[in-house]
Amino acid sequence: MTTYTSEGSGRKSIDGLLLLNKPAGITSNQALQKVKKLLKAKKAGHTGSLDPAATGMLPLCFGEATKVCAYLLNADKIYRVTARLGVATDTGDVDGRETVTAQIPTLNRHDWEKLLIGFCGDIEQVPPMYSALKQGGKRLYELARKGKTVERQPRKVRIHDINLLEVCGQRLVFRVHCSKGTYVRTLVEDIAKVAGTVAHIANLHRESVGHFRTEDMVELLNIERLAGSSPDVFYEYLLPTDEALAGWPKQEINEDAAARFTAGQAVALDIKGNSTQTGHVKVYSAHGEQFLGVGELTGDGTIAPRRIFRVAAIPAITV
């Protein structure tokens, strides 16, 4: 259930997720603030930042849904990447300053496909200087803007799949399914290095985050139009908070247990068979009527609350 209630201040208590198709030219936070202002939402956050030049799926979380942001950070991503071969930039993308040029190797489509497949699996990446990682209390990009370069430790990431879509002259286009923490700019530079040249990202579009579907993204222009003309229609685009946890195991508890669980108490479960189960689960009231939060099976037949969600407690209009 996606809900919202009106506030006397003009702000609304909105609970739910919005999959924004972030346009190029603005930061992820600027995109969030634009939408938050348009919807007059009281509380909002985003997960999985995109660079200003990048476009695509940016999950925006409103109200109680801000509590699932951390879980979405661990999700896999799928990107459509357009690289420009033969030219390197200091930032690794189109916004940077050209630093090096190199000849483009004569490789046919089969050669490129074989090269790309070689990056599948667990690989190590050295984070780029133009990144938000901190070292010595400073963001790396802050040091990079001052012309400084510091040593960075490689990180292990996983490339689940990578498929060549197009190669023509300086243009190399591929789709990559990767784990959290993958720097696509670094991937492009590493691919070019193996090919015997240099490259940078000319265009980056994130097609999906976790299980969320590309077709469920909403354009910023549509939000602006709906917010100005028929705001109630907009709420149909919001996804329920628990949609962020799709694929998680589900646990239902009775009315008495629900009252104690939402008060922060661990509750005993009526588990038939194995009572030593452990791990995080989605917790619902009886018959799955209300999403209550995230619980952890502790292995002794009880479930402890880890995140309580108050969506069901808000007098709301269901849309």
Q: Tally the beta strands.
A: 20
| Beta-strand content | 35-45%
Cα-atom radius of gyration: 23 Å
The CATH topology annotation of the largest domain reads as Pseudouridine synthase
Largest sheet: 11 strands, mixed
Structural class: alpha+beta
Corresponding CATH superfamily of the largest domain: Pseudouridine synthase
Q: Give the CA-based shape.
A: globular
Range of helix content: 10-25%
Q: Mean of the pLDDT scores?
A: 87
SSE series: EEHEEHEEEHEEEHEEHEEHHEHEEEEE
The CATH architecture assignment of the largest domain turns out to be: 2-Layer Sandwich
Give unreliable regions as ranges: 1-6, 312-319
Number of helices: 8
Tally of discrete structural domains = 3
CATH class of the largest domain: Alpha Beta
Determine the N-to-C terminus distance: 8 Å
Secondary structure layout plus pairing:
Blueprint: E1 3-6, E2 12-22, H1 28-39, E3 44-46, E4 55-62, H2 69-72, E5 77-85, E6 87-89, E7 98-101, H3 109-117, E8 121-125, E9 134-135, E10 138-139, H4 140-145, E11 155-168, E12 171-178, H5 184-195, E13 199-209, E14 218-219, H6 220-229, H7 231-234, E15 250-253, H8 255-261, E16 267-268, E17 278-285, E18 291-298, E19 302-308, E20 317-318
Parallel strand pairs: 2-14, 4-13, 15-17
Antiparallel strand pairs: 1-2, 1-20, 2-4, 3-4, 5-12, 5-13, 6-7, 8-11, 9-10, 11-12, 16-19, 17-18, 18-19
What features would you highlight for this structure?
single chain; 319 residues; alpha+beta; Pseudouridine synthase; Archaeosine Trna-guanine Transglycosylase, Chain: A, domain 4; eleven-stranded mixed beta sheet; five-stranded mixed beta sheet; 8 helices; globular; disordered N terminus
